[in-house]
Description:
Mean pLDDT: 75
Largest sheet: none
Distance between the termini: 43 Å
Radius of gyration: 21 Å
Helix content: over 70%
Number of helices: 4
Structural class: mainly alpha
Order of helices and strands: HHHH
Strand content: under 5%
Number of strands: 0
Low-confidence stretches: none
Amino acid sequence: MVNIDPTALGLEFGGGAAIGALxxxxxxxxxxxxxxxxxxxxxxxxxxxxxxxxxxxxGALSNGLIKTSEHADPTYLESLISTMSVGxxxxxGFLIGFRRG
Length: 101
């Protein structure tokens, strides 16, 4: 029979939730900043391209992004399953922090 300590599980879940909430909050703030930076960069590229100062191969840029996403490695799922008590708390906290951020 498996010996499960509810106190340890509660502490792991709570700790994971607290860390997840902080990470989610920070991730949303950083994601907004990155979105603004990328948007400004695209506007600058379009302006410079319209003025003839810069030539951007948009097809090659899009193909590079698509090829990169095809090589994503899904092995993170195994490590998530092995640390389920911390992972569940972290995920819940991350979603709450991301939503509140």
